[in-house]
Amino acid sequence: MDYTMQFSVVWNNVGLFIQGVFLTLQLALTSIAFGLVLGVLGALGRTSGNKILNAIAVAYVEFIRNTPFLIQLFFFFFGLPGIGLRLTPWQASVLALAINFGAYSTEIIRAGIEGIGKGQIEAGMALGLSKLKVFRHVVLMPALGNIYPSLVSQIVIAILFTSVVSQISAEELTFVGNFLQSRTFRSFEIYLTIAFLYLGIVWFVKFLAFLIQQKFFSFMQYIR
Q: Is pLDDT of 189 > 80?
């Protein structure tokens, strides 16, 4: 094997790699935020006892979880223009990632809600709390605490899924790598660097998740 590694292509384009990291984080955080809202709404539909809401939530979850993410992405970017709805690569990426994350988080949050005992809810109502306060303090927070590790794992998967959106030319870390590789042909150095950058992003997110857990969900260890 006659191959001389030249990491100068990395050092000479550090700015592009840093830009790619920030764009990836921006894309991931935006889509995860919207996806969490969908996940909470979907979980409420699944646990509401209303057959129509439950059917809508089940259909949403089953469709998204049983179709490839790449097809979902292509549908929003290439399919919707067929009916007159044109989205930019960034808009299509956020929409596809949010809807995908929302479907998976729906089932995770649902499991957390169903793990809350009815006695706790009845106690909250007996204390004179409104239904909104009961849901927020008695149901949602303890439920999130119960499923927090699973939710963080799904967040990591969603971050790694951002690499797929380079297929529609959405500018993020993988797009930057593809751009540089097409001009320098130093595939080994570029994609190895990108792999370590994704690893760094995931470790950073896991560290933030740990800090959030210690601040907001550390009480769970005392009630288990």
A: yes
* CA 126 from centroid of its chain's CA atoms: 37
What is the rounded distance in angstroms from the CA atom of residue 126 to the CA atom of residue 155? Answer: 36
The one-character DSSP state at 78 is I
Kindly report the CA angle at 92 between 46 and 72, in degrees rounded to 5? 55
Question: Dihedral (C-alpha) 127, 132, 138, 141: value to the nearest 10 degrees?
Answer: -150
- Using an 8 Å Cβ cutoff, are 123 and 180 in contact? no
What gap in Å lies between CA 54 and CA 43, rounded to an integer? 9
Round to the nearest angstrom and report the end-to-end CA distance of the chain: 57
The model carries a pTM of: 0.87
Calculate what percentage of the chain has a pLDDT beyond 70.
Answer: 86
pLDDT at 219: 53
CA distance 130 to 39: 23
Distance of CA 162 to the CA centre of its chain: 9
Structure tokens given for 140: 């949602």
Superfamily designation of domain 25-218: MetI-like (1.10.3720.10)
Phi, psi of 212 (to 5 degrees): -65, -40
